[in-house]
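for the writeup, i need someone to sanity check this before i put it in the appendix. the sequnce is what the collaborator sent (i think, or maybe the updated version? ugh). structure was predicted straight from it, no edits. if anything looks off just tell me and ill rerun, i have time this weekend
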Amino acid sequence: MDAGTHALAGIKVMVIDDSNTIRRSAEIFLVKAGCEVILAEDGFDALSKIADHLPDVIFVDIMMPRLDGYQTCALIKKNPKFKLTPVIMLSSKDGLFDRARGRMVGSDEYLTKPFTKESLLKAVDQYTAQRV
């Protein structure tokens, strides 16, 4: 397979963010790379969709109404069915405290917003490379 446009073909990626702009830009980057994208507006929306779609990688914004990214990540990781699914936190804050708190709830990675197409695709590739 060439390292070009569809290097990540067939990989299901969920993007959970209350910002329509962030969801749309992530979706455009991921779809162009060949991913199947599932979008969710918040943690509650995401939790119902995870069971239906079984994403390979989940990106979750930290600052969201109702159920924030930390709570959402913790709930995903508490479910035995999804605890091995990589969860990557998205935040406009790049503090050590935020990173540490993300790790405490089980997140696998932390990306700072605004993310680049490269950082997003690199994270997906990194966490799905071990798939057969």
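The first helix runs from residue 20 to 32. Residues 12-126 form a domain with the Rossmann fold fold (CATH 3.40.50.2300).
thx in advance!!
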